[in-house]
Each structure stands twice: as structure tokens, then as C-alpha cells.
Amino acid sequence: MFKKVSIFGVGLIGGSFALALKRAGVVGQVFGVGRSATSLARAKELGIVDVASSSVEEAVRDADLILVAAPVAQTEAILASIEPFLQPDTIVTDAGSTKTDVVEAARKALGGKIAQFVPGHPIAGREQNGPDAAIVDLYVGKKTVITRLPENSASDVARVAAAWEQCGAIIHKLTPEEHDRVFASVSHLPHLLAYALVDDVARKPHADVLFQYAASGFRDFTRIAGSSPEMWRDISLANQAALLGELDAYMAQLVQLRELLAERNGKAIEAVYANAQRARQNWIKTIESAEQQNKQGGD
Amino acid sequence: MFKKVSIFGVGLIGGSFALALKRAGVVGQVFGVGRSATSLARAKELGIVDVASSSVEEAVRDADLILVAAPVAQTEAILASIEPFLQPDTIVTDAGSTKTDVVEAARKALGGKIAQFVPGHPIAGREQNGPDAAIVDLYVGKKTVITRLPENSASDVARVAAAWEQCGAIIHKLTPEEHDRVFASVSHLPHLLAYALVDDVARKPHADVLFQYAASGFRDFTRIAGSSPEMWRDISLANQAALLGELDAYMAQLVQLRELLAERNGKAIEAVYANAQRARQNWIKTIESAEQQNKQGGD
To answer: Which residues 6+ apart lie within 8 Å of A292 measured at CB?
Structure first.
């Protein structure tokens, strides 16, 4: 049970967290804080937050839990604004898509109070943003990764985990470095590749003809290139080291495939394609059987 | 009106063509021919073909139109088997995903009868294959590209176009070379990239952890890596020249993006991402307004 939960950034992520905690009946007051008065007012109107204010001091005072749910590039500034008012019994967590840089920012901003910061990343999203996009079920059956720090107390980690579990999320634990390598591989790199392909096509002199013949395969492959450029610029920079590593591995793979294609080595090309198809089919089967189990468990 | 249409390969593509011509009431007899007796029997059972046979001679005799709807790598052998029986009043067309190599194969196989071959490519498909996957509506509202040869008569081209139009398709015309460059860019390259990414992830020592955290973005990006490895090996080899060109351009683009990331040039990275997002949004708008118009026209 939380008496007061304060949320920095009452958009899709923060707003859905608030709605889910309210439905679970585990929060006394949700306090919304942010830079946009419009978003705050809208969040209050929608019943996402009980109190909306631009005052960091008010937000931090007597809060049991603070969630920072703003773009990762703002994490350091927000935590620095929180620090002067932060009391020992308040836990701070975040929802950033990258973790190594967030931890670094938190260490700078919070200094001696770093033990109170438990980094997290809920793996959930929607195409829309802002308070109107917030939904109570966003986290149901989804993973939330907690990347605990050596300084964190077991009870603070458990309390953050419990909050996400009340939202319906399944808790996973990774180190910040593991987290960033994993998401560089399965999320950040695919985004970069999709952006690169559409940009490449769009800059060709006959781009209009190309787009005319692009069909459903192209549409699915490039869906993630419809995501916010600002957000993915920030993520790319925040996870630069891991992303460069994954990009290099992928480029080496393309160089190899190019060679096979140049020498018309059909057998080896088919082996790569078949390995990919098999791996993907196994992965999809695992997802589908997990979804099946979730459904059975939920009813 | 066609008295007799013969189809080499009564699977998804050939079978759907037959069903659509029958519904339109523009064909007297559909004659199915192929290597698999099981597929032929099934196609007969399903009412896709009126006659099923393994005899090429019977298939070609008195046919107005012959459609070769087999994997592109088999085109030359099939056309060579047709050639001895081919009469001057029969038109031959195909449904191959690549065109330069098909034209080359046709010139070898048909020699002096090349004028009778009008190459085509219906841009439609489904995940399933075989006669059971054939559906009457497969081509409705979809493009069929005709890549006419200098030797083709205008009336033969018009007759092939009319057959596809009877199936509901919209006719586009490109040269074989244009066709192959366009599809290398918007279809063949994305397939290669998706296969490469899944293979890359699957071969990492911690692949199981990676797949565990892969979410909907990864799922859509890699959907086309679930396609048939044999088919895409054939397409990659058949369109080797154009595909190498597109792959090189894409790799150059990745090298550039890598540099921007290494030097933390956020502004330039965002510009690439934003250009891609804008181009994709415009493309999607065009598709959606075309779909809207098709619907209005159809009702």
C-alpha cells in the first residue's frame, strides 16, 4: 500500500501506471507533476492523478514512491530537481528504455541518496502518447525489468516490484549492462535498421515509384520507423555503446551474406534463411504458448 | 473469353488465378498440369481445375493461354517442355517474382517463339501455399506488373492484361530491369535484412535471453523472415545483380549512420529518423486513401 505516489510525466507510461495502481486500490493519492500544464490538467480531468502541480517540492514531500516517466534525456535534470527535497523513506524509480545511462545520471544527480533509486523498465507501449493514451491494462501480462543497484536495499527493490505487479506486470531482473545489450539487440538495432531503410528508399531519385510497389512485407518491416524520431535519437545516444556493438555484428553478417550472394552460393544463403525461419518459428511458438497460459490463468 | 487456360503449378498463385477466371465466367476449361500428382488431384477436388494431367502435350494443345506459376528456378525447364508443342495462337505468361532472369530463361527455352511469351508478376500472396491456399479474391485490388518484351504484339499484351483484370487486378507496366530494381529495393532487400537479423540474434550465445525480451516491434520487423527459405534463396539468386546494388547502397547508409552514432551527432541522427518517419507516414496516407477510393468504387 502506498499513501502517496508521485509521477513525473503523466503521459502514456506514467498515466497507465497511475490508473493501474488506482484500480488495484493500493494507492492513497496520485500526485502528478510535469512541465506541461496542459498535460497535467488533462491528466486530472481524466482521473489519472488526484493532484496536479508543477511544484517538485510538493510532489516529493511525503511521497512513498516517485516514478520518473519522462524521456530518458531528461532523467538527470528531473532527479537533480528532486534530490534537495528527498527524504530517506521515499523510493524513486523510473521507466526509461535504457539503463546504464540512467544509472549514471542518477548517480550524478542523487549522490549519497543513490540507494533510494531503483531503476526499472516496463516493456509496454502503444503508438499514441500523452495522458489520453494512458490505459489501465497497459502492463497486464507484460514484463517489467528491474535493474537493481548494489546500493539498493532488498525491501526497496521488493516494494518497486510489488507496485508493478499490482499493475499486472511480470518482474524480470537484469543488470543495467545486460539490459542495455539485450534491448540494443532486439529493439534499438531493429529501429535503426528500419529508419535507415525508409530513409534510403526515400532519398532515391525514383522514390515515388518504389513506394508505389511497396507492399505488406515492407509495411510490417518498417512499422517501427513510424516511431518518434526524438525519442529514438535519445535512446540511440543513451545506449550508444551497446548499439554500436550490435550494429557492427549485424554489418559483419551483411558483409558475409553479400559474399555468398556474389558467389551465388545458394546452399549457404538458404542455410542462413532457414536458420532464421526456424528460430523465428520457435520464438513465435513460445510466445503463443505463454499467451495461452496467461489467458487460462487469468480466467 | 478463353476457351482453354492451362496452368503449370496449381498452388496459391495458379489456383487463385483459375478460381478468379472461373468466377468471372471468362474461361471454358481450366487445365492443370504439374509435377505433384497429389496437388493436381487436390486442385481437381477443389474445383480449381477441370482437367488435371501430367502431360505437357495435352496441356499445351489448343490452349489460348498458358500460365507458368511455379518457382522461378523452374521456369526455363517448364518453358522448354512447352516449346515443342506450342502453336502460334497460344499466349504464354508467368507469375514469377523476378523478371530479368525469367526473360533470359524464356529466350533460351522458347527461341523463335519468344514473341508469344508475355512476362508478368502479380503482387499478391498469403502465408500459406498449395491448392488449399488458393482463394478467388487473391488478386482483387492488387497490382499485376506486366514487363512486356519488344517482340510481344500489342494484342497479346492486352489479352494477358485482360485476364488479370478479370481477376480484379490493376495492371502496371515496367521493363523487366525496372521491375527487378524496384522489387530488389522494396521487397527482396527487406527479406534479406530480416533473415540476417534473426539469424544474427539466433547465433548469439545468449539467444534465449534475447528472444525472451523481443517484443512486437521485433515481431513485425522480422515477420518476412518466416517466409520460405527455398523460395527466397531462388529470388535472391534470380535477382542477384539488382539485390547486390540495393544491399551495397543500404550498407553504405549503415556505415554513415554508424559514424553519426560514434560521434554522437544527435542532430544528424534525428534528421535521418525524421526523414524516414515522414516518408513512411506519407506513404501510408497514400495507401489508405487508395484503399478508401477502391472501397467506394467497389460498392
So the answer is: none
CB pairs under 8 A between A and B: 266
Give B30's strand partners: B5
State whether B227 and A280 contact (CB < 8 Å): no
Residue of B nearest to A121 (CA): B213
C-alpha separations of A288 from A185, A285, A291, B203 in Å: 22, 5, 5, 22
Please report where in the chains the cell 511455379 appears, as a residue: B70
Q: How is residue A71 written as a grid cell?
A: 524521456
Per-residue pLDDT for chain A (299 aa), expressed as one digit of tens each?
Answer: 899 999 999 999 999 999 999 999 999 999 999 888 999 999 999 999 999 999 999 999 999 999 999 988 899 999 999 999 999 999 999 999 999 999 999 999 999 999 999 999 999 887 778 999 999 999 999 999 999 999 999 999 999 999 999 999 999 999 999 999 999 999 999 999 999 999 999 999 999 999 999 988 999 999 999 988 998 999 999 999 999 999 999 999 999 999 999 999 999 999 999 999 999 999 999 988 877 776 654 44
Residue of B nearest to A172 (CA): B213
To the nearest whole angstrom, how far is the Cα of A232 from the nearest Cα of chain B?
A: 8
Torsion of CA A95, A100, A101, A107, to 10 degrees: 90
**B230, B233, B278: best to mutate for the A interface, most A CBs within 10 A:** B233
Give the separation between CA A134 and CA A141, rounded to whole angstroms.
Answer: 16
* CB-based contacts of A50, cutoff 8 Å, min separation 6: A29, A30, A31, A44
Partner residue facing A218 (CB), from B186, B222, B254: B186
Distance from CA of B162 to the nearest CA of A (A): 21
Could B210 and A236 be called an inter-chain contact, meaning their C-beta atoms sit closer than 8 Å? Answer: no
Which of chain B's residues have a Cβ under 8 Å away from the Cβ of A171? none
- Are the C-beta atoms of A177 and A100 separated by less than 8 Å? yes
* Residue among B210, B221, B286 minimizing CB distance to A224: B221
- Residue A35 gets which letter from DSSP? S
**Contact yes or no for B257 and A196 at CB 8 A:** yes
Test A272 with B194 for CB contact under 8 angstroms: no
- Asked if the Cβ–Cβ distance from B187 to A217 is below 8 Å, we say yes
For helices A75-82 and A100-110, angle between their N-to-C axes, nearest 10 degrees? 30
Q: Could you tell me the domains of chain A?
A: 2-174 (3.40.50.720), 178-263 (1.10.3660.10)
C-alpha cell at A161: 516490484
Q: Where are the alpha helices (DSSP H) in chain A?
A: 12-24, 37-45, 56-60, 75-82, 100-110, 154-166, 176-183, 189-202, 207-213, 216-221, 229-238, 240-262, 266-298
Distance of CA B21 to the CA centre of its chain: 19
